[in-house]
Amino acid sequence: MKSRKLKYFVPAVFLSALSGATPSYAQVNAEQVMNIGRNVLSMEDYLLSIQYFNQAIKAKPYLADAYFYRGLAKLSLDDYDGAIADCNLALERNKFKSEAYKVRGFAYMNIGKDSLAIADFNKGLEYNPDDRYFLFYKGIAQSELKKYESADSTFSYLLRRHPNFEDGYLAAGRMDLQRGDTITALAKVDHALKISKSLLNAYLLKAEIAAGKKEWENSIQNMDEAIRLRPEQPEYYINRAYLRYNNEDFFGAMSDYNYSLQLDPENSVALFNRALLRTEVKELTNADADFTHVLKLDPNNFYALYNRGLVNLELGNYKKALEDFRKIARRYPRFHPAYYAIAECLRHTGDMKGMVDNIKKADNLVAGYVANPTKNPLDRPAISSGSNSSRRNDDTPETDEEFMQRFNQLMTTTADNVQELAFNDRIKGRVQDRNINVTPEGAYFISFIRPETNLRNLSNYFRDLDNLNRRRYISRLLYIRQDTPMPSSTAEMQQTFAIEDDFSRGIVGKDKARPVDMLGRGVARMMLKNYDEAIADLTAAIEGSENFTTALFARSNAYYLRSKAMPDKEGAGSMLTRADLQMAMNDLDTLLKLSPGMVYGWFNKGLLYYEAGDYTSALQCFDEAIRLDPEFGPAYFNRGLAFLQQGNRQKAFSDLSKAGELGVLPSYNILKRMK
Prior knowledge:
The two termini are 27 Å apart. Helices cover 67% and strands 1% of the residues.
């Protein structure tokens, strides 16, 4: 039974840096914003803290601390590239900001650039020679590079200067374990536990050492302690299940897999291992369901597909098993066990000729390999069980095609029932761990409902609409808001009906209605999902007033919304949808000729192209939106998704990092899952 390696957490201790004083040259407003940002950061509201530091940077772009703390917040969100970029900016402004070397070095470690990390830790040690965390991280980075003598020297100095630093003993013990000295490793871990009995990593290391010796009971006892300290971690139950399985406690192993899946229902490692265990105890129908769930999460999981075929073969579902084995044979034509399995399926279905042909094919593959393994290699698929991606389990660099496929799987396997969270809940904590739909940021619409205040740096400004409101050409204020213009409550719905009635009274009985009144009623009808009459009203507004950009934008909204309301099927419905989308695009084209600085027009046009799969055109539109508003977070986010669709990971990650910095919450989740 396969198991994920027992995880060892490197503690990141940076929040102590929050006590540093803001430079004395900062004015009161910038200092106040910085203080609030640091307080919010210490409360783990990382996304909100970034917005405060953004404000400080706007006011005083020369403040090194603002970039440093923003980098620290990004580090906490697993945005390592963003953290590195901000530390670079902080150090450009103050090269003596030693904590920036610590944060940047830790970020380098997390992306596998241990040599650069060591250089940063060495630089920090020039300013603080005995800083225990510079020494601690340096030793770990040296261990990762297998520079064990250097690491041993670093840890020895660290523990001489800080003899009660329990994490130092753990890291040194981990290094000893890496080079095969389990006795010394265990002694250091036990010493750390004498200092503190609540060291999570100590129990994880002891469990790993005991498992390596096949001392299952001992290993289980240490995993029990780790679970006591961190009962919310599904990986710990998966690891204990593996240990219990090896200790022949099948019931206990099954209980752990079940509980890990209560904590994380989409955990493919738990699903895969539970399926194997269910196969072994002959719960075959349940095993088939688990393997199917794994394949929904990762369609390229070879092991799940092969094992599901074996389960269905045993269940007598020969047609289903045959489909799985043939799919494997198409993907790996020299994987000989697939042909033996196909032959067995065909034997049960009475196709004796097919059975013989497949046995011969498998026999010939084996014979050719035995005669000349170099000339006739067999396929030996190495696809990690439980992987949430199609990424291969070797050192071959991921191709652009594999990268795009991984992103497409990420989009199609994400749960689609995520509820919108309350404002504070939505922005608090490790937002990169939330299971968030991978969908582009939605379009912008005209509405009579004021948009909610949020963290994003958007003014929702449209000059022509602003003129319309300020000069009171229209009796009600109009706003631009994202995602939907619709009423969200009974009160808002009643208010919208009242607005429609007000405009109708001003229109009915007049020989020629004012275009602004037609605009107002058209927007109200659009908000009430009366798209046909809304489009008719907005068309009348456009015909009654030359170059009426606000009405053009509103009509493009109405066409777009009507296209979304059409039945999702081929035939007439599909044709009408395409026609509406084209009309929406036409209105945006006209609008942007008249008002080329209308940033939301460019954004909506880019979204239309993105949804149509024309990512090159979408990129051009999002480029223009960002040129017009360099702090337009949703445009960075959507441009990042378009780059992901094209396999351009460098530009995609840069845009998603910027979008997260500007308050677009899903960015950090995607960054974590794609990296």
